[in-house]
Amino acid sequence: MAAVEKLITDSLDVWSSAVKSKAATGRGASGERELYGIKKLRELILDLAVSGLLVPQDKKDSPVKKLLEIMAAEKTKLVREKIIKKPKKYEPIDRDKIPHAIPSTWEWVRLADIGHDWGQKTPDCEFTYIDVGAINKELGVVSEPSVILPSNAPSRARKIVRKGTVIYSTVRPYLLNIAVVDREFEPEPIASTAFAIIHPFTGINASYLHRYLRSPTFVGYVESVQAGIAYPAINDKQFFAGVIPIPPLEEQERIVAKVDELMALCDALEVQQKNSFTAHQTLVETLLAVLTNAQNAEAFNQAWSRIAEHFDTLFTTEHSIGQVEQTILQLAVTGKLVPQYPGDEPASVVLEQIAAEKKQLIEEGKTRKERVPSEEEQNSLGFDLAPGWSLTSVQELCRPEEIVTYGILKPVWSEEGVPTVRISEMRNGEIEIDKLRKCDIERASKFEKTRLVPGDLLITKDGTIGKTAFVPPELEGGNITQHVLRFPVSRFVDRRYIRVCIDAPVCQAWMAGETKGVALKGINVGDFRKMPLPLPPIKEQARIVGKVDELLSICNRLKDCLKSVEKIAVQISDLIGDHLIGSSNNKILTNSGGYKEMKITTQLMLGKRTPGDDSIIAPLIMAENGKADAKAIWKKSQLELPTFYSQLKLEIEAGYVLKPVAGILEG
């Protein structure tokens, strides 16, 4: 047992370093990360606890068979005295279907053998109501019950509970809403029928039962028998048919104490990691803000030198690289990403060309004059323009005969019709054409002004505001809904730069500041038309787009490498857990509580490039004939695990090490 606990504590850096980036869509995502390793560690602790591997067995403990006899006698007595109803009979446990091996001093029994419910009643006086929301699932207690009059009683308020009762939420979204009723409630407590109620017989520690019901073993059982689609659940019969491993009472108490001790360690690790993530995120955002706010070349270079010196330790998360991407866009539209060349024709010439074209069409009666935003409306970006740049607005950069407008109001969907773009089909800068719905032709014909032209820029205006995508050639003649704007960009400007501009934080912030609405926040099309845009010379627009594409491509490669490294960390934490607890198809555990030696074989292999002076990991792999398992290389590197992952990311990116494949477990 000491060896098991030692492996857990020796691997704390593995557990704390194994994280998963939470799926997030939209610009400005929080960058939240799931502490996957710590979550797995909690599950592992519970699995070890109910497998007899967490604390040692003691020959002096009371035999379980004697406990079972005492419980059977207590059940008979309660039935005879009509305190409880005669329980249902269940089939004997099929020994070939038990979840996992246990020590020889334990016994597998059904929940019906170790506890009972108290029946149901309809409230006839004031009572304490315990529903699913009243449970503090972290502490495993009833924390927020309600005192209710019988006239206001919900129809689900029926199940009787008492001090020492364990209540278990049977509905899937709340499977871990489990609690021990740890005190007497006044007035009388009654629980919702959304709970299964089990009051343990003498010889069962309620806290041990609580821990078991939270374990992956029992959760797996519930998920295998639950029924329902929207809210899968199990009934009382299925609950009491579930099996539970019973250790001696003294060992139950040792298990509860050890689980609580290790869970407190997990709590501390979680706080430490969250504080570390927050501090790291703040540091990255602060340093990048200094870079974007630099007022001159000297300040910019000083800010960049600070970042470059610590680049490999600063940018180790998907969120931090996302911040770099936003910084690139901000630098692009503030004139700090590429140099200005005095020979470039200034942006004012482009604006004159656009104005001349519009004037001619107005004189020919082919379009009408639009209101020009005031100087105050335009002068709201908060930075000085670079030499040769001009400040303009969205509507001034439209094709002369068109304006920015939204699409079809209340589209009528049909099998045949006009492909119509909704917000949900604009993802990652592109339109998911295969997911488009079609609007009835007659309905779509009333919105001819928003017929799509290849190259038009689409912008989401409601809900998730500011997502952009270009119209591809295959969507010519399509349309958009009222929640999407169509921006017909003038032929005199580089539409790719306009997209960079709208994607940049400065314009995103401007749109966010103009949003209106309560249920569905959005930006008014009239406000969007007057949004200020910083316009560089046409040649500089092309240079900016080229540099942005180059740098964002590097960021994407960095994110891919991070995902590979993150995957290794997750695999290692999974493999350690699988090794200790085994699986239903390949049990590593034995009744004696022993376990086999583990060998993690997540393979690392040399890449195509010769390792440089900055390489640490590749030479170690080279010494192993070009291939070795990840954990062995980590140990030889003598690096802290987070540092090892950061270094591995850099060497994969440099081509010194190949991107690893999934690991396996031997032993």
Give, in spatial order, the strands making up the sheet with the most strands.
Answer: 4-13-10-11
- Which descriptor suits the 3D outline? globular
CATH names the topology of the domain at 372-534 as Adenine-n6-DNA-methyltransferase TaqI, Chain A, domain 2
Question: Quick check: average pLDDT?
Answer: 85
CATH architecture of the domain at 372-534: Alpha-Beta Complex
Look at the structure and name the CATH superfamily of the domain at 372-534: DNA methylase specificity domains
Nearest-angstrom radius of gyration? 33 Å
According to DSSP, the number of beta strands is 30
In which range does the helix fraction lie? 40-55%
**Poorly predicted sequence stretches spanning 5 or more consecutive residues:** 24-30, 583-600, 662-667
Output the CATH class name of the domain at 372-534: Alpha Beta
In terms of DSSP E residues, the strand content is 5-15%
Taking the sheet with the most strands, its summary is:
4 strands, antiparallel
What's the tally of helices? 22
Task: For the record, give the distance between the C-alpha atoms at the N and C termini, rounded to a whole number.
Answer: 19 Å
Class from helix and strand fractions: alpha+beta
Task: Explain the overall architecture.
This protein is of the alpha+beta class. Among the domains are: 107-246, DNA methylase specificity domains (Adenine-n6-DNA-methyltransferase TaqI, Chain A, domain 2, Alpha-Beta Complex); 372-534, DNA methylase specificity domains (Adenine-n6-DNA-methyltransferase TaqI, Chain A, domain 2, Alpha-Beta Complex); 597-667. The protein has 22 helices and 30 strands. The strands form eleven sheets. A four-stranded antiparallel sheet has the order 4-13-10-11. A four-stranded mixed sheet has the order 8-5-12-9, with no helix packed on it. A hairpin with a 2-residue loop joins strand 19 (426-427) and strand 20. The protein is globular and about 100 Å long. Mean pLDDT is 85; it is low at 24-30, 583-600 and 662-667.
